[in-house]
Every structure is written in structure tokens, then in C-alpha cells.
Amino acid sequence: MATDAEMAVRAAEDFRIVRLVVNGEARSGLAEPRTLLVDFIRHELGLTGTHVGCEHGVCGACTVRLNGHLIRSCITFAVQVEGQEIETVEGLAPGADLHPIQEAYQEAHALQCGFCTPGLLLATQSLLEENPAPSDAEIREYLAGNICRCTGYTNIVRAVQIAAAKL
Amino acid sequence: MKPVRFKYFAPETVAEAVARLEEYGDEAKVLAGGQSLVPLMNLRLARPGVLVDICRIPRLDEIRRNGSLSIGATARQRAVRQSDEVAAAAPIITEVMRWVGHPATQSQGTFGGMAAHADPAAEIPAVLLALDAELVATGRDGERAIPAGEFFSTWFTTTLAPTEILTEVRIPASASQSRSAFLELARRHGDFAMVGAAAVVELDEAGTAESSRLTLCGVGDTPVRAHGSEEFLVGRQLDSATMQEAARMAAADLSPPSDVHASSEYRQEVAAVLVRRALEQIAADT
Amino acid sequence: MATTDRTRPPQYLGARVMRVEDPRFLRGGGQYIDDIALPGMLHAAFCRSPHPHARIKSIDVGATRQLAGVRGVFTGESLKELVGPLVTGLDHEHIRVLEQRVLPLDRVRHVGEAVAVVVATSRYIAEDACDLIEVEWEPLPYVMDAEEAMKPDAPLIDDSIPDNNTLHLDYEGGNVEEGLAGSDRVYTRKFYFGRQSASPLETRGLIADYDAASEMLTIWMSNQMPHLTRTMISTPLGLPEGRIRIIAPDVGGGFGLKAHVFVEDLIVPVLSRQLLRPIKWIEDRHENLAASGHAREIHYECDIGVNEDGTFTTIYGRLLGNNGAYNNYPYCAFIDVGMGGNLLPGMYDWQHARYVSDAPLTNKCQTSAYRATGMVVGNSMREIMIDEIARDMDIDPVEMRLQNTIPPDPYVNALGHKYDGGSYAEALKKAAEALDYEGFRQRQRELLEDGRYLGIGFSTCVEPAGWATEHARAHHWGEGFGTFGGYFDSASVTVEPDGSVTVTTGLHSHGQSHETTFAQVAADALGVRLEDVRVRQGDTASAVYGVGTYASRSSVLGAGTIMRAGADVRAKLVRIAAHELEADPADIELYDGRAHVRGSPDKTIDVTQLAQLAYFGHTNRPADLEEPALTSTRSYDPPESYNNSTFGAIVEVDIETGIIDLQRFAAVEDCGTMLNPNVVEGQVAGGAAQGIGMALYEEVCYDEEGQLQTGSLVEFLYPSMMEVPDIEAEHIETPSPVTAAGVKGLGEGGLLTTPAAVVNAVADALAPLGVALDRLPLNPGYVLSRIRAAREQ
Ligand code: FES
Ligand code: FES
Predict the structure, then answer these.
(1) Which residues on A lie below 8 Å from B35 (Cβ)?
(2) Which listed site, C178, C180, C346, C426, has its alpha carbon 20 to 30 Å from C438?
(3) Is residue B241 helix, strand or coil?
């Protein structure tokens, strides 16, 4: 939502159009080379479900999927993924119903402030695609890259088990 | 926490990438996944003026095995971890990938990037050194193979020329014959090691070591090879006194760095423990 | 609709109701501060000090003006006329008042302190501009250590405080000197509790939008207490509260950090007023670790008097905090070193107790509130010492605790705190059972023979919760937050014309699940369905005034206020229903969204109709119903109440590496009546994880040069899923006799109780080696050095 003058500044700089497929839909927006993918997704495309917790690749809050695999969008530049497919939390349940993983998180009370949740949901999705019946230990190892400051994780592990049973 | 401005190039051939490096000299950095570089850029601790993204170069991510194992520089860590070829040719690489970051960094981070970043606390450089790997550098005049022992020069620095690109990592065929183990201590799972130890040992039928390579990460400005212990082991059985002594020797001459996670003394002390345990693991497997 | 066959549903209160707020968060539809964008919005970034202590000789911002997109640059000098200082001090006879300019005029006092602010069209450009600001510094002598700062020749951090000490507290119950003299044994121990950081996963941040036409300042802020914040910023901004609206949207964790006013919270609104544009500032993680607020660093020395039969007599703590360079606003160092003394007695029957606290200024970032505050330090100190004393006296630590435990009835402890009763001994026994204490001891002995070092540790806690005026008084908070005395809270309950219910509250949820638990309370209070209740919070323009959410107060204050207001409205519904159904009001029952006449199953009317009658019913209303509006606003200021808990941990220590494997963790808590057990368990587990972080991983460190060593999450370690074991939670419910519905609150107990359980388990594991521990966190290098030291002896 920049003003005209600000748009002019952006045009004069090294902005370019980046095209992506996001949650199955072709999207495009302006990015400098240095524009972080997470900023592009959130502020250029307006998909604010992907969060920023550290901006240096440690906490997992910015986790999205690139061509079906988990990545951290705060340490990826938008220009690096030009033309590729991104999935964000907004794409998990396109309809009225929640995705079974989302339902499981609600049932298990696996979120409190909800800030880590989008990243964890996508990580859970990838885990269960790779390993449909994980043990608690496998869940913990796979999801260890997603920090939650609120829940103490116990209910997240439970949620993943519930989700595994549903899927 | 935003990076400074830079120019971005995504060449489609190695030659083009090399040309960019020549054009921009010191200003330019290779972007090979960026899982180490981009955090530093966000913190403005790295401020390259130009990034040359080599991940769009076709076939630079191939993993091939014919005799030796060849891992393309931009092979994603995830692909390496899941590769059957890698598991057969160099099981220690498959094993070590468990310790390297998390699924979300492994799908973007590259194997070659981890080597070229030359973080002395990182696991992959230590394992490459233990495997006697060759790192293939490509420049204007073609390729040259650099033995791992000559590749890592100091903190975050390699012997790659500024206009060369790491294009491939080659693991000798002998790796599949050896027994190996990798162990590390980190503050948390997925973090860089405070100390890590890799051991690659060839044993004859009687259980006597024919050759051995022991390396450590987190204990110096590069991955460190324990030459003395390696020589000591050759011709001996892996009994407990031998392993103990090899471990002691491996740690004896280290002068590891101190940081907020561990002191130099701590690193030195547990280096011996890890080497011994790695050898014990090998001995137990036989 | 046939309703006669419907049976009366169980009440919502106490049920495992799934959270109302979850679908929003699960779809990525939460609206956190950085998700908000306003037309024409600009972005701020701060230029911060690289020095721990330095005079600012000059600041040259000239180069920033060349940069396209920069809209303004401000320094201490250019802001000094525009905004008043933060005047920090608790209106407390023992706490010194300090003045802090929003940006320093003459010198910086810690690494990371803001010295200038840039406003630009993007955060990227604002940061570029910060790089171009040239500050000429004259480094000054600095002091990082609290003991050093208390010495007569220490560098002075603030000229108005001649000895650096921001407070001196000395509170006593009984007579400690006599108590110690009369005890068979006196144990004295020193323990160092490392510096912490609350670091919610969402950092701080705000957007300020000053509208010149209406002269209204609207602030969106990631914040735990929007109303109190409005009150606190009004004076320095020179704007009446009626011209300030604060909206705390969804907040990604607070843990006390967002219950403060920091300088940025004043600067950003001023910039908006100057530039007449909405301005956003989102704290980055480095700023969060370097310049928000740290917590807890305390050198603790403690004496415990005990008799040969194991009876405790006396406890006496000396606390030396490390305040950092400024007083946090509004709580000052009291939040740590005051509360760290207050928690000394716990659940034991001491005859004498005393604490003495000091907190000097140093060249570190200020300390601030972090969940469990200094309470966790005082509680841990006692629990750690009890284990050491038991070991020394060859008494079982569980037995020793039980021997000294107060009865379950209301009790006044040695410092004068009025406990409202609890399951003190029972919780400990239950925790021991949960971990099969006897069985473990057997296994421990066997494994020790194989050279494996396992240990078990327990920790108990009595936590002041439901914080309000009497708590503040009992814990010596003086007259309140400076001029902001009084700790009640309020809620309004309104039945809308369609029968739906709106609750507003000044409490704020940043993970605590108010939209669910408060709706449960309201639904029961009115007899309506949960799904018909909406809880509105976090907006000073639409919720009644309240002090906010901190200090484990929201479940007690929320339940009390909503039950009171709900009862008022319910009484009106009953009167209207009685009138309409021609029944005696005493026979009207409200449940499931309908009024029923007891004994006449056919006589029933739903709340929607009752609401229609109230709003639009004219002559159909009871004639004597003078105020038909179905709304009530009530406040509540509960007396002291206290939850209790016992946690137990089992660890194995690798004595060659110092690595600690936390294998099991049992948490037994009693927070009185539970509003929702799911939420209780979530609070306990989350707090426990933070306590595990405090015990084993998290520490804010500075080096000898006064530089911050833990400025990113690579160095500051949150525990991940691999470090936190399954938290095995069990409940006991001892309703409070003094609060609404018997609710006790529990937000901090999880953290409070945890660290000592872990430390005690590690000490137990290493007891055969004679290892003594004296600091937190127990990082592997420290543990190994203690093992080595013990072996060398
Ligand atoms: S925000 Fe990307 S990993 Fe923390
Ligand atoms: S729910 Fe708050 S960070 Fe996970």
C-alpha cells in the first residue's frame, strides 16, 4: 500500500516482478533481490499467516513449503524461488472445513498464542507425508526445528499423533 | 534485520557463473542454497554486493556413483540424506546428515554450500576430511580437484580462488569398504556441534586396523585431522586401551576456540571422549 | 421447537472445551501486529549503541538524507521537546526514582541502547539509513557485574544515584537472628541465577497513527495491558487518555515482556504525530535480545536454620540483582529481587523469615518482567537448599519436605502472606508416586553399579496468583505502579437484542485462551450456549477499563468480574422470564439458552425472546423493571489466593561430557477450580518448558568488553521439542474459599516450580561424586567442570 511517490522510488531501484504459484494460484509482485521471501509472501502478496520469529533461520515460524518441501522463508530470497510453487498455511484448508491436521491441533490444545502454529502445521504435513505413522521420538526429531515458546510441546506431539490417526 | 542491497544473478551455466565472479571480484559471493549465508546477511554481518546463485545451473545437483561417489555441489542436503547411492557408497554421510540442521534447512541447503562455507563447527567438512574426499573447483581454465586436506584453510575460508566455484564433491570408492562412525555434542538437536568426531577405519579380518582417518569439528579454525592417532591405530586391534590412547592423542594437541556454548578446555576434554566413543561404535559393529 | 426433552447440560466451567479462537489461528487468520498494514504507512528502525557506556559527542545524520525513501531522522535532541521522560519508581519508600529520556541526550548506558530513529518507506531502507548515521563516541568506564557496581569506586551509571543501587529492601517476619542462633544447624549457600530473556516468539512492535483532523492517536501494539499502557503513556505524550486508543491485536506470546512501556512505545507515536503518517516499528530478534528487557540475574545467598530432627526454623535470603542500565517501567527491579525474596517461605512452616535485596545499575540492558519473575529464583533457592540439607543430614528429601509441610488449611506464612489453603503435602506425594519414587531409587542404585548416573529431584511451590490489591500490599509493592495504584479489573456482560452475549474485559489473552474460558464463565453465569458468547478484549475503545493480563491474574479476575456482571444480567432475564411465563422468579431456571419454569416443563422461553422483550418489549416488560438494558459492568478485587504445585524430574547425566538427559517430568498442580483443564495443562507444560530452558539452556551473556554474546537465537537457546520431555500433568482441585468460584490462577507456576526440580535431579545424580552445583543454567561445560572439581578433591 505504498503511495505513488513511494512506488516511483521502488521503480527506480532494483525492483523486479517475481512470479510464483502460491497455494495453487499464480501470483506476482515486486521484489528487490534482497527481499526476503517471507516479506514477499506477507507484505507483497498479503498472506500474513506465515510469521517471522527470528529472521535468521532458527525458529521455524516462517516455514513454508517450496515444491512440496519445507523451507524457511526468512532465509530465502524471493528471487531465488521465481517461478516455483509455494504452499503456505492459508492453502491447507481451502474450504469451510479445517484440514485434519488443523483439527488435531485444536483437539489436542496444541496452540496457545498461535504464532508458531502455521509453521508447525506445514512441518506436520511434511512429516506425515514422509512417515504416516511416526513414533513420538520421530515426531520430536522432525519437528525440532520449529520452536514454540508457549505450549511445552507435549500437546503438539499429541496433535501429530491424532492427525496421523485421522489421515 | 534486513540484508543490504545487492545485485543478483542466476546464471544457467558454470562458465557464466565464473564470468560473473570474475566481473565482480571481491564484491561477489556464490549463493548455493544460502542457509548459512542469508542469516549472516540478514544480520548484516555479511554484505556482499553481488550474489551469484548457482542453484539454477542444470545438473549441478546430480548425485552419481561409478566407483567413486560424485555429489554435485548444489545437491540439496535432503537429497543427499535420502540418496541410496550415498548410503551405499559412504554410509557415514547418510549418518551425519541426521545432525545437520533440520528438514526445512536441508531442503534448501546444499551439500557443496556446506563444504564451501567452511564453518569449522560444521559436520560435513569434518566428514569430507575423514573420507579423504576431493572437492572439485571450476574456474575459467577448467576443473581442478582439491583434496579435502588442502581445501579448508581457516575460519570460513577455503583455498578456492575468488573466481572459482565448487562444483562437485568426490568420495573415493574405498569409503564403502570402511567402517565409520560420526558422533557429536551440540547444545540442542540440530545445532552446530560444540565438538564432533568422525572416524573412518578399515579393519582386516582379524580386526586389525589397516588404515584409519579421524577428524574433529568444532575444535579449531578448520576441521582437524588427528594424524597421530590415525598412525597409532594402524596395525592395532581396537581394544579398549588402544581406543583410549588414540582418543587421548587426538585431543592432546588441540587448542579449540571458546564461545558462549563451550570453553576451549571443555571442547578439548570431550573431543577425546567422542573419538573414543566413535571408535567403540566401530569396534562394536564388527 | 421441542425443548422439554432436553436435559440440563453440564456446566461449561471446568469442562475440556475446545478453543473458540483456534480456527482463526489454524487458518493463518490471526492478526498480529506485523500483519496490519495501513495506507501510507512508514517504517521505523533504530540506530543503536555498540558501546556499553559512552558519551555521545556528536551525531551526524546528514548522509541519511541522500537516501531515497527516508522520511525523517530523529535523535534525543530532536525529540526532547516532543515527549517527556519515563519517570520510573514504584512510589515506594525504598525504591529510587529515575528519569529516562526516550533517546539519550548525552550518553548511552548499554550495548543496543537506541540513539537515533529513522523513518522510511520500508524497513529495508530505514535500516540502510541507520547504517549511515555517524556517531562520535567517547567510551566511558563501564561495569557489568552487580558486585562490582556496588563498590564505592564503581563507574556511576546515573548521576542521580550516587551508589548505583536502585533499591534496598529488608522485610522480616519473626526474628531471623534469634531463629538462626536457636537452630541446631545453620546452612549457608550461594547460588547464581543467570540472566534471562522472556523472548516471546513474536517480538514487540507497534503501529502509531495520529490523525490530525480528529486529534486522535490510535496505537496498535503487541501488548498485554492496553488500558494500563494508555494510562502510562498519556503523561509523557502530553495527550489525554480520551485521545488515545490502544488496540492489542492477537499477540504472539508476552510472558511479562509486553506488560511494560519501553522507549519505542513513546517514540513511534511521537513520530507519527510529527510526520502525520502511520508508522510501524517491529522489533527484530536482535533488538529483542539486546534492548527489550532481560530478567532475573541474581546472586543469591541464603541461610537456613534446621534442627537435628529435620525441622526447619528459619530462612534468610540476601539477593543481589543486576538491574541493568535503567529501571523498567513501571515495576523497577522489585519485580525480580523483591519477588525473589517474597517467595522464600513456600509451603513450609518457618518460624522466621527475612530477605534483604539490592539491585544496582550496571551497563547491561534493563531487567524486566518475565513469567515467574524473581519468584522462580527465590523458590528455586529454597528448594535447591532443602535437597542439599537433606543430603547432608542423610534424610530423604521427600520426607524432609513432608515433615515441614504446612497443613492444607488457610495459613499465614512467616512473611505474613495469607494462604487460602491447598494440597501441599498431597501434591508432593502424588508427584513422588507419578515418578514411582521408591522404584526409581532401586533402579538408580542398580544403574550406578554400571557407571550410570541417574537422579530424581522434586520442587514444590506456593504461587501468589490472581494478583490484585491485597497481594500487592502483602508483597510490599508500596502504593502501586507509581501513581497507578489499585489492581482490580472489570468486565462488562451484555445480552444483545438477538440473545447473543458480548463480554468485554480489560484483560488480554496472548495465549491464555480467554475467548474460550471467559465465554465458559459467561455462558454458565447466564445459562446460555457457549457458541452464543463473544469475548472482546484488547481494544481500549471497545472494552471496559482493566489493568491487564500479568501475574497469573486473569482467570481469577476474569471469572470474578464476569460472574458478577453475568449475575446482574441473569437476574434481569429471570425477572422478564417470570413475568412472561407468569411464574415466580424463584422458579425460573436458565440453561441452554432458555428460561425454564421448575416443575413445568412446557413453560419455557428462549433468551432471544427475553432479549427482544427487554429491548423492545415496552409494556410487555415487568412494570417495575426500571433499567431494562441487559448489561452490567462490574469490577473485582479479590483477596490473596495461592496455587500450589510439586514437580518432579528424572535425569541421567553423562559424566564424561556433562550432558544432561531429562528423561521424565511430572507436574502436579492445584490451581483450585479449573476453568478448563486443557488450558491448565497447556499453561503448566508451557511454563515447564521455559523452566527447563532456564535450568539447562537459556542465558543472556555479556563478555568482558561489555558486548552482548547472545544477540541471536544461535546463541540464546530456546529448548526445542528434543529438549523438553513429555510433561506428565496431574491435577488436584482445592477450590479457594476466598475467590469467585474457587479459582486460583496458575500462569506462572509451571515455570516457577521447574528449575529446582531439574537442578535437584542433576545434583542427586551426581551426589555419589560429591558434586556441588552453584549456578544456572547447567550447561554441559559447567557441569563437567564441577564433576572434574569434585573428582580432584
Ligand atoms: S523467522 Fe525464519 S526461522 Fe525464525
Ligand atoms: S503457541 Fe505461542 S509460540 Fe507456539
Answers:
(1) 57, 72, 75
(2) C346
(3) helix
- Give the distance (Å) from ligand 1 centre to CA of residue A147: 9
Q: Which domains does chain A have, with CATH numbers?
A: 4-91 (3.10.20.30), 100-166 (1.10.150.120)
Q: Compute the nearest-CA separation of C289 from chain B (Å).
A: 13
Non-local (6+) Cβ contacts of A113 within 8 A are A149, A150, C200, C201, C202, C250, C251, C252, C253, C510, C511
> Under a CB-based contact definition with an 8 Å cutoff, are residues C59 and C116 in contact?
yes
Judge if C317 and C458 occupy the same domain: yes
CA distance C44 to C124: 10
Domain at B98, CATH number: 3.30.465.10
Interface confidence (ipTM) of the complex? 0.96
Identify the closest residue of chain C to A105 by CA–CA distance: C26
Optimal mutation site among B4, B29, B36, B38, interface A, most CBs of chain A within 10 A: B38
CA C169–ligand 1 middle distance (angstroms): 42
In a domain, C454, yes or no: yes
* CA-based nearest residue to C363, from C85, C50, C712: C50
The residue type at B237: Q
Residues from chain A that touch B10, judged by Cβ atoms under 8 A, are 79-80, 82
C201 Cα nearest atom in ligand 2 = 3
B69 and B168 fall within a common domain: yes
User: C401 phi and psi, to 5 degrees?
Assistant: -65, -50
Q: Are residues C247 and C127 in the same domain?
A: yes
Mean pLDDT across the stretch B246-267? 96
Which ligand sits nearest to residue A38's alpha carbon?
Answer: 1
- By CB neighbour count within 10 A (0-12 exposed, 13-18 middle, 19+ buried), where does B45 fall? exposed
CB contact under 8 Å between C201 and A61, yes or no, is yes
Which of B174, B201, B227 is the last residue in one of the domains?
A: B174
Residue B13 structural domain: 7-56
The partner residue sitting opposite B6, judged by closest CB among A34, A69, A144, is A34
Name chain B contacts of A82, Cβ cutoff 8 Å.
Answer: 10
> CB A90 to CB C713 under 8 A?
no
The ligand whose atoms approach the alpha carbon of A117 most closely is 2
Last residue in a domain, options B174, B207, B224: B174
Sign of the torsion formed by the C-alpha atoms of C653, C658, C662 and C667: positive
Which grid coordinates are listed for C268? Answer: 513511534
Q: Examine the pLDDT at C483 and tell me if it is beyond 50.
A: no
Per-residue confidence at C547, pLDDT binned at 50, 70, 90?
confident
CA A73–ligand 1 middle distance (angstroms): 7
Considering CB atoms only, which of A32, A33, A72 is closest to B105? A72
pTM for the whole thing? Answer: 0.97
- Whether B117 is covered by a domain: the verdict is yes
Residue C516 in contact with partner chain A when CB distance is under 8 A: no
What total number of domains does chain B contain? 3
pLDDT tens track for A53-84: 999 999 999 999 999 999 999 999 999 999 99
The answer on C500 and C414 residing in a single domain is no
Range of the domain at C68: 33-140+203-251+258-292
What's residue C5's pLDDT? 38
Ligand 1 surroundings by CB, under 6 angstroms: A 52-55, 57-62, 72, 74
CB contact under 8 A, B102 and A80: no
Q: Do B52 and B109 reside in the same domain of the chain? A: no
**Is residue C530 located within the same domain as residue C421?**
no
Domain contains B151:
yes
* Domain tally, chain C: 3
Percentages helix, strand, coil for chain C, rounded to the nearest 5? 30, 25, 40
The CATH number of whichever domain residue C47 belongs to comes to 3.90.1170.50
Ranking A48-52, C445-449, C600-604 by mean pLDDT, the lowest is C600-604
Residue C153 lies in a domain: no
Instruction: Please check whether residues B83 and B25 belong to one and the same domain.
Output: no
State the DSSP code for C111.
T
Helix (H, G, I), strand (E, B) or coil at A37: helix
Q: Are residues B126 and B143 in the same domain?
A: yes
- For residue A57, report the distance from its CA to the centre of ligand 1, in Å: 4
